[in-house]
């Protein structure tokens, strides 16, 4: 007899001889069924085994006995099938276990092989959004050393609310302790970020570094005032950009420490918020707009006679973004009491005054905040380019803005050894990509490239770098904002503000960036605009 038994491997059926009922040993089923005399049992077994043979009239039994016969036949058949299935399954389980053991053994062998090759030494220069992300991604695979001029990570998008003394999404106000908490909320010591010791952190205490083609020289580090030479197999330059003024940590002088940075905030805040003051903000890009909104919210709340003026040389605010976004933002700012001046360049006329170049309009204030003039942090690369000795600083090519020129598909620095990468704001890229999200994304990509070093198949699968769709949130105080996807406004008001708060919560805890989700978003149209005006900080 032939039975069809499901094959575990493919879900198809295989055929095998069906065991005859009489060969099956008695089991518990026998013990449980109604007792039948021994002779009768023999007759029933004979019936079950022959199955097709008709019974002689003398062998015919009562209806009850016939029912018993049928039950026994079915039970035997079921038992036989179950045994056959068990046999087949255990064979498959055995094969599966064997395959699993083989796979584990092979994996162990591969890991041992790779651990016998020395781990690559990666130096990450600059620990902002890009640098920290690269270090975190690489720490399990390489020996990573991070170098920064200060001792703490600063969540740059949060500095504006902190400056105004507001905690994002908090009804708690502008009392000093709340302001201090707001500052702390956006700063994390590197000692805490890299506390698991898998990443070595070196604080240069300033920006005195020299990049050679095989090492980075840190000047006068660890208070010994001696140079430290750090060799690398791969170098990631992520030194970002610098701002004049308080809205971003300079990373030098007292701002090398967290306490020094908090003191700088506190002083600026005291000047801005003491009451009956006019703060002039220069630059109507994203940074200027967000700053104006934060300060206006504070002035309204404090009701102390303070006011905010925003000067912008372009025809409208946020001229790097589509018109409707600029219009929405301008209306929101005016509604919150900001005086907005657009359409002409203003030149400085004394410490706290500006004069319009076209109409000679004079604007006076008590405090000035510059939301323009960000520069890439590449000074250390330019320093010794005229030195032609073999110990000269690596000759890294810079674009007209001073950013590092890279191959956009690999993020590798053009013209130097292939093992030098530039990520984040320091790299030459479309100005609309000068955002923290892009810095993260680029770092993640480069880290993956380095992880796959020597694995041509994996690198081919990884492919070229593809920037994610633009998804940004512009906050207009704690409870208002605009969320932009591509060129489209997808949310305004409290929803956008909540999104921004969520982003801060996520970033500041260095949770894995949810770029898998971003990758799935279709690219929305982003109309090309004047590149000179697109950087978050470039408008004036
Ligand atoms: C006020 C403000 C608000 C912003 N808001 C947003 C926002 O809401 N959303 C958004 O996506 N983007 C925003 N941006 C832009 C965003 O902050 C940047 O795109 C992002 O910081 C770039 O990250 P990065 O890692 O490339 O560089 P950075 O964050 O600039 O980090 C560079 C790091 O390198 C270190 N460094 C520099 N030079 C040296 C040196 N020579 N030696 C040692 N260390 C060095 C610095 O100390 C710093 O830690 C904002 C920017 C500003 C200024």
Characterize the structure shown:
- This protein is of the alpha/beta class.
- 36% of the residues lie in helices and 20% in strands.
- It contains 15 helices and 26 strands.
- The model is unreliable at 1-61, 111-115, 168-175 and 530-540 (pLDDT under 50).
- Strands 7-4-3-11-23 form a five-stranded parallel sheet, covered by helices on one side. Strands 15-14-13-19 form a four-stranded parallel sheet, with helices on one face.
- The chain folds into two domains: 2-91, no CATH class; 121-533, FAD/NAD(P)-binding domain.
- It is globular and about 100 Å long.
- Flavin-adenine dinucleotide binds at residues 126-131, 147-150, 156-157, 159-160, 204, 207, 209, 238-241, 243, 247-248, 251, 287, 377, 380, 424-426, 434-437, 439, 536-537.
Instruction: Provide the gyration radius in Å.
Output: 36 Å
Uncertain runs with pLDDT below 50, 5 residues or more? 1-61, 111-115, 168-175, 530-540
Spatial separation of the terminal alpha carbons:
90 Å
Provide the CATH top-level class of the largest domain. Alpha Beta
Mean pLDDT across all amino acids = 77
Q: Name the beta content range.
A: 15-25%
Main β-sheet: number of strands, strand sense, barrel status?
5 strands, parallel
Rough shape? Answer: globular
Tell me the CATH topology of the largest domain: FAD/NAD(P)-binding domain
The CATH architecture of the largest domain comes to 3-Layer(bba) Sandwich
Secondary structural class: alpha/beta
In the sheet with the most strands, the strands line up as: 7-4-3-11-23
Q: What's the tally of helices? A: 15
Number of strands: 26
């Amino acid at each position: 007899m032939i039975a069809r038994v499901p094959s575990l491997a493919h879900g198809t059926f295989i055929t095998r001889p069906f065991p005859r009922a009489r060969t099956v040993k008695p089991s518990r089923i026998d013990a449980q069924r109604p007792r039948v005399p021994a002779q009768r049992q023999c007759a029933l077994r004979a019936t079950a085994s022959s199955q097709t043979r008709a019974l002689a009239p003398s062998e015919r039994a009562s209806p009850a006995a016939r029912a018993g016969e049928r039950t026994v036949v079915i039970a035997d058949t079921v038992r036989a099938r179950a045994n056959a299935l068990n046999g087949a399954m255990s064979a498959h389980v055995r094969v599966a276990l064997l395959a699993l053991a083989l796979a584990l053994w092979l994996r162990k062998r591969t890991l041992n092989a790779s651990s016998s090759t020395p781990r690559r030494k990666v130096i990450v220069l600059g620990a902002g959004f890009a640098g920290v992300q690269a270090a975190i991604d690489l720490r399990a695979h390489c020996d990573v050393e991070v170098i920064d001029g200060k001792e703490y990570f600063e969540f740059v998008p949060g500095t504006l609310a902190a400056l105004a003394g507001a905690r994002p999404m908090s009804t708690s106000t502008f009392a000093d302790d709340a302001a201090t908490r707001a500052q702390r909320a956006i700063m994390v010591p590197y000692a805490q970020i890299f506390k698991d010791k898998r990443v070595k952190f070196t604080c240069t205490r300033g920006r005195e570094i020299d990049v050679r083609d095989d090492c980075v020289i840190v000047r006068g580090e660890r208070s010994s005032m001696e140079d430290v030479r750090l060799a690398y197999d791969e170098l990631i330059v992520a030194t970002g950009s610098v701002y004049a003024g308080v809205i971003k940590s300079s990373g030098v002088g007292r701002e090398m420490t967290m306490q020094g940075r908090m003191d700088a905030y506190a002083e600026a805040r005291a000047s801005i918020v003491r009451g009956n003051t006019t703060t002039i903000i220069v630059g109507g890009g994203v940074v200027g707009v967000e700053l104006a909104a934060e300060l206006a919210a504070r002035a309204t709340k404090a009701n102390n006679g303070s006011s905010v003026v925003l000067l912008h040389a372009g025809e409208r605010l946020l001229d790097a973004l589509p018109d409707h976004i600029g219009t929405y933002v301008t209306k929101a700012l005016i509604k919150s009491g900001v005086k907005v001046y657009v359409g002409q360049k203003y030149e400085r006329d004394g410490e706290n005054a500006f004069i319009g170049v076209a109409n000679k309009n004079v604007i006076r204030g008590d405090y000035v905040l510059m939301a323009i003039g960000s520069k890439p942090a590449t000074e250390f690369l330019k320093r010794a380019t005229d030195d032609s000795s073999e110990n000269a600083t690596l000759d890294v090519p810079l674009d007209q803005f001073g950013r590092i020129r890279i191959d956009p598909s690999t993020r590798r620095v053009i013209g130097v050894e292939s093992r030098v990468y530039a990520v984040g704001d320091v790299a030459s890229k479309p100005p609309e990509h000068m955002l923290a999200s892009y810095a993260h994304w680029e770092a993640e990509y480069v880290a993956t490239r380095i992880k796959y070093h020597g694995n041509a198949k994996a690198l081919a699968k990884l492919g070229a770098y593809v920037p994610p769709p633009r998804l940004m949130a512009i906050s207009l105080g704690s409870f208002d904002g605009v969320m932009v996807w591509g060129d489209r406004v997808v949310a305004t008001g409290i929803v956008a503000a909540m999104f921004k708060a969520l982003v801060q919560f996520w970033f500041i805890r260095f949770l894995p960036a949810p770029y898998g989700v971003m990758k799935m978003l279709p690219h929305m149209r982003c109309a090309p605009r004047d590149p000179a005006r697109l950087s978050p900080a470039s408008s004036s």
